[in-house]
Amino acid sequence: MPATAADLIAALPTGPERIEDYAVLGDSHSVAVVSRRGSVDWLCLPWLDSEAFFAALLGTPENGRWLLTAVAEDGEVTAERRYVGDSFVLETTYTTPTGRARVIETMPLEDQRADLIRRVEGLSGRVTFVHEWMVRFSYGKTKPWIHRDIDPDGVRVIRAIAGPDSLTLHGDRLPRAADGRHQDVFEVAAGERVDHVLTWTSSWDPIPVLPDVDAELARTETLWAGWSRANTYDGPYREEVTRSLLVLRLLTQEPTGGIAAAATTSLPEEIGGERNWDYRYSWLRDAALTLEALVDLGFRGEAEKWRQWLLRAAAGEPEKLQIMYRLDGSRELPERQLDHLPGFAGSVPVRVGNAAVNQHQNDVLGEVMLALDLARRAGLHKSRHSWALQRHLVDNMLRHWRLPDHGIWEVRGPRRHFTHSKVMCWAALDCAVRGVEEHGLDGPAEAWRAAREEIRADVLANGFDPALNSFVQHYGAKHTDASLLQLVQVGFLPPDDPRILGTVARVRAELADGPWVRRYLTSTGVDGLSGGEHPFLACCFWLVDALARTGDTAAARRNMDELVAVTNDVGLLAEEYDPVNRRFTGNFPQAFSHLALVRAAHSLSVAESAPVPVGAAAPTEPVIPAEQGTRTGEDTADPRPAADRP
Questions:
Q1: Beta strand residue intervals within 113-219, DSSP E
Q2: Can you point out the beta strands (E) in 255-298?
């Protein structure tokens, strides 16, 4: 008796896949996360930050998934994946003892719909596929009303409805209902095709008709390839840079221009830990750094879209500027826990929304001003509205830069005088002064120059420890922070300055293990959280960037070679990497990681084609003073005289 779909599905491996075993599809509105086993385990529609309909990534198959994969009752099934050219058309080729077949899947671009196409093609012999379509609305919590219906063209469909949302499944073979799910088993022979298309619509809209699958696959591949052709980069690691740029574009929402930090929520920074955050929103910092990476390599249209997004999102009182927004610019991101989801590999809590929206982070304006300054230098047309907003934001910053803040890493402990935050305030003023002096914009340049020098003097007096020959994480600290590597990027001091070289060496000694760099020492308790985390990939690429800029191109290239080697089989990176267990941790794919890869490759390319800066021959191994102790109880103190404290 032939095995049933339920039998074949039950025989598949159980438990969550590793984060690196996932690929993504996207249409510039949302992103589907699909496993190597052929299961769409995460999909929010119609937008990236909408509620999920498939949430098995953070739970079990009972929380919703769309499985379409090859199986064999006798023998092994292998799967090889690739993106077709420079696109997000994913091709997975299955080889079984009886034949070969492939699945081609994508989310069509610019089709004014929310579709996910999955096509099965037989290549040789005969291959058996199992199909399971299990929809759960409200992040895997709600079973919808599911029924068979007929679309306006008279084609049979399956439709799932709950509240304002509906999902419609078209298919050459529609699965059959079986105990709260829909399942099927079928074979494909060489030359045969089986198509399925999932479409989101509002529940009150008519049933959507089936799109032209051939046309949508071809058009989507062409659109992605056309966009990537604007890439002007022609240096080392071009393949990795190109894929990273495509990821940044994937995470940029049409039509708003908002740039998401990642496609997922609550993938843990430490397996089993509590550091699980929702990254499906637009951080001004991440978006600004993404903009820099894109503008550097020829994508000026994205810069204009993001500038317009910023103007809309920040409209109103500059005092109420947030560090993050929803992708459409909305301000409300209340954080809550989804207790019905057991979390990825048991990592709880699962969070949606992000309470860090209410934090005060002084560094954000610096990143924004740097991005807009780069856009001006790249020839983006001047906007009086944009400059007016920048002036207001700079003036507001001048009233608050002396205050402690939560810093770039959004610590949930006490506010502190983070050195990186102060430097980024300096950078904001540096860009404002350049706007007047080099671009002819209107502004109080003399007052801004004076404030810039005041901040610089404050940082040099309180953020640098002569005994360590290094800048420190925050005023009064005796330890570093990987964010200090950005001091050389923003030009706070020349790359051959002994204080920069000392800081790079100290970061390598204190936070790095070869190319693997942690953000900071979690043992100090500065972040107010329990547990630890793994090397932060963006910081790893920042070290490459710093080494390249300070003249140690040999060490920079060694690190870069190791880092790009851990991209998964389709070129994607998560937030963090565990080099011991060789696995990704954190949200995925992470814009911060990919944009840092782009900037590191670019800096290394420039450094290798230019002479070594005078005095910048940094040693290949870090050299620091013998003392490496850290202070915890004293770190909260403000070391400045009482009269100078805020």
A1: 114-134, 145-150, 156-162, 165-171, 176-177, 182-189, 193-202
A2: 282-283
Question: What was the pLDDT predicted at 601?
Answer: 96
pLDDT reported for residue 378: 79
Distant-in-sequence, close-in-space partners of 330: CB < 8 Å, separation ≥ 6: none
Amino acid at 327: L
Tell me if residue 134 falls in helix, strand or coil.
strand
d(CA 64, CA 136): 5
The string of DSSP letters for 562-597 reads HHHTTS-TTS---SEEETTTTEEESSSSBHHHHHHH
Q: At which residue do the structure tokens 């880092």 appear?
A: 563
Give the DSSP H/E element, type plus range, for residue 246. helix 238-250
The DSSP code sequence of 436-476 is HHTT---S-HHHHHHHHHHHHHHHHHHTEETTTTEE-SBTT
The pair of structure tokens assigned to 75 is 């023998």
Does residue 237 share a domain with residue 200?
no
What is the count of structural domains for the chain? Answer: 2
Our separate counts of H helices and E strands in the chain read 15, 25
* Helix, strand, coil fractions of the chain, as percent rounded to 5: 35, 20, 45
Tell me the two tokens of residue 93: 């080729």
Query: What are the residues whose beta carbons fall under 8 Å from the beta carbon of 57, sequence distance 6 or more?
Result: 16, 22, 33, 41, 42, 264, 267, 344
**Crossing angle (nearest 10°) for helices 537-549 and 498-511:** 150
Q: Write a three-state SS string for 536-556.
A: EHHHHHHHHHHHHHCCCHHHH
**Nearest Cα residue to 335 out of 282, 413, 266, 283:** 266
The per-residue pLDDT for range 385-428, each reduced to its tens digit, is: 889 889 999 999 999 999 999 989 888 888 999 999 999 999 99
In our burial notation (b when 16+ CB lie closer than 10 A, e otherwise), range 536-574 reads: bbbbbbbbbbbbbbbbbbebbbbbbeebbebbbebbbbb
Q: Which two tokens stand for residue 610?
A: 């230019």
CA distance 386 to 438: 17
Cα–Cα distances in angstroms (integers) from residue 571 to residues 61, 86, 295, 620, in the given order: 26, 11, 21, 28
463 and 499 fall within a common domain:
yes
Q: Are residues 547 and 402 in the same domain?
A: yes
In this structure, the answer to whether residues 85 and 176 fall within a common structural domain is yes
How distant is the alpha carbon of residue 432 from its chain centre? 28
The domain of 418 spans 228-637
Say how far apart CA 561 and CA 580 lie, in whole Å: 18
Please state the three-class secondary structure of 341-355 as a single string: CCCHHHCCCCEECCH
pTM: 0.91
- The number of beta carbons lying within 10 Å of the beta carbon of residue 230 is 14
